[in-house]
Amino acid sequence: MNTLEFSVLVWLGSISAGLLGALTGLGGGIVVIPMLTLLFAVDIRYAAGAALISVIATSSGAASAYVRDGYSNLRVGMFLEVATTFGALAGAALAAYISGSRIAVIFGVVLLFSAYLSFRKRRNPRSDAPPDRLAAWLRLDSTYPAPGGLCSYHVQGVPPAFGLMFVAGTLSGLLGIGSGAVKVLALDWAMHLPFKVSTTTSNFMIGVTAAASAGVYLSRGYIDPGLAMPVMLGVLIGSLVGARVLEKVDSAALRLVFCAVIVVLGIEMIFNGLTGRL
Amino acid sequence: MENERTGWTEQQVERTIGTLLRVGLMIATAVVLVGASLYLYRHGSEPPHYRIFRGEPADLRSIGGILRDSMQERSRGLIQLGLLLLLATPVARVAFSVVAFALERDRFYAMVTLVVLAVLLYSIVGGYV
Q1: Is the predicted pLDDT of residue A251 greater than 90, yes or no?
Q2: Does B85 contact A at CB distance below 8 Å?
Q3: Read out DSSP for A165-206?
Q4: What range does the domain containing A20 cover?
């Protein structure tokens, strides 16, 4: 296989990874890493570097479409971004001291956990929650456009969300992913943000977190242009198409099939990491 | 809110951010595509080499090196320049938010955003943790 054939195959594979990432709500980055390491025998550090680049592209592509809708909460995003960017630096620093096989095992566990989180039914939180003192002091409460006019909400649980975001940042820097599932967990479960607000805010945060990790990855030589190029172009196309498809068909059966694929990939990563094949 | 006197509504800020992200992504993708065509044309028949991690050469690890390589129309340098531009997009977004908060006279959030911007710049320019 020469470089041209390799690039075309990786590109096609990345389109599928982007599609799968969008349809499961996991994001393309976390799906493209097992594909590169298991299918194309790419070293996990190169795979993480390329995935991180594709995460930034996807986040910018999606955000440019819905940042104008008025859903994302910029104050919540920026405040928590302090935790994720410091976490990303810590994770990227940690990545230099952990072997590829260990990273593969951690990756597999995070993949399985993310699949579980995104498959769980997300519920819109109660909108009548009383204001939280810390959130009010930080002026995090806001409104979002609803069919009947602007709808206001009170943000809860700032400290646990901040902690979870540090974890999300660390995982992003360590594994080269966007950590979308953990971010949504912090915004949904800890902060009680309305569904659309947490989705768009987490998407905005993913790009900034990934940029913090990518800077370190670049200077450490994890980002190979020849590999990152087909991965970025493929995942970007796949996720944009996947987001369109998701608007039309969102069947539970389809999600179950996709999640099964993710579970298999996660187990495979853990197995290959434990047996030292990755 | 109090930002009416500056003439910047939240919606204008968000619209500008949306445009910023789209234009950044388009420019980055275009540069990557130019580099990719050159790369595949010149090196397409060579074998790929990603099985064993060696790390990138020094010129592809720093902003200065990437710029020098791109000037000499080296294909890998050009792709890397496109990736660097892509990386700059969220950074530009954060920088723009600092300005937007400052225009709203929201000192606290301007400072918070400035911290995020500093971490990002440290990661990209300082690089070595």
Answers
A1: no
A2: no
A3: HHHHHHHHHHHS---HHHHHHIIIIIT---HHHHHHHHHHHH
A4: 3-274
